[in-house]
Amino acid sequence: MFTHKAYIIKTLTNTHVGAGDTEFGIVDNLIQRDPVRRLPVFHSSSLKGALREHMEAEPFLDKDCLKLIFGNKTKSENLSAGEVKFYEARLLALPLRSSTLVYHNATAPFVFLDFLETLSTFGITGDDTNGLKTLFKDIKNKFEKKDSSDFCVFGENNRPIIEDFEKSCVCNGRIESLGESIKALCNLQFDNLAVFKDDLFKQICESSIPVIARNSLDEQGISQNLFYEEVLPRQTTLWFMLGRNKKYVDEQCYENFENKLINDLIQIGANASIGYGVTRISSIYQGSYQ
């Protein structure tokens, strides 16, 4: 039997988890994306590999526990996949430039409702998220009624221009009582949250992810190759789940693993030598952010 837990990833520096693809003539190194929705993701194999590398670099778990969680690497060790399921990390909120704040955390109803519904399906949260589900469904319905707004914000005095979008609406109602819920669940706050229309948010994620020019030098320090690379900017929020096989991975083994997971800064993706990919991972327990 598998029991599931969910986790929040916050990127503390620019992060590039590469797809191995190029957009000929524009971007050389693309980030990983969901094949259907085209939103940024960290594929399960990339996430698992990064976590395994971190756990093995600074031994904290005994070898048997590591093998139970991650599996064996070679056939000589009776190759296995491990007894913990690693699910992909999905985008929850993307920081965008704002005229009233340093940035707004941008999301969309379909993104947040997928997050909440998945947590409920896997028994990670219960009725405590019903208010948030209702809120995002109401925003979705508002947009579907041919509302001319590009996005909604929370609070009458907060009418920003975000990137190049300025048609905003204001969400009121139950937000005061729900503010603590969303902060507890994923460490986001209503005062810098912007909920975009679904199709517009998908467009932003496809066309407005930062692209950084990088240069490769030879041994004499002469430029040999200028290339362009997509990155998820710092303060991007993603979420993922882990499923533990209770029959094989005991609570003490998993607890030791989880303690290191949430207490360390973990590097995910490429270019660690130039400070990319530093992340903080936090856990969600029955609607609580820890």
What is this structure, in a nutshell?
By secondary structure, this protein is α+β, with helices and mostly antiparallel strands. The chain has seven helices and 14 strands.
Q: Please provide the ordered H/E string of secondary-structure elements.
A: EEHHEEEHHEEHEHEEEHEEE
Structural class computed from helices and strand pairing? alpha+beta
Q: Terminal Cα separation, in Å? A: 25 Å
- What's the total count of β strands? 14
Largest sheet: 12 strands, mixed
Helix content: 25-40%
Mean pLDDT across every amino acid position: 87
Query: Any low-confidence stretches, pLDDT <50, length ≥5?
Result: none
Shape: globular
| Computed Rg | 20 Å
Topology:
Elements lengths: L1 E10 L29 E2 L1 H14 L5 H8 L13 E3 L2 E9 L5 E5 L1 H13 L8 H15 L6 E4 L13 E4 L3 H12 L6 E4 L1 H10 L3 E7 L5 E8 L6 E9 L5 H13 L1 E3 L10 E8 L2 E2 L1
Parallel strand pairs: 5-8, 6-7
Antiparallel strand pairs: 1-11, 1-13, 2-4, 3-11, 4-5, 4-11, 6-8, 9-10, 12-13, 13-14
Helix pairs in contact: 3-4
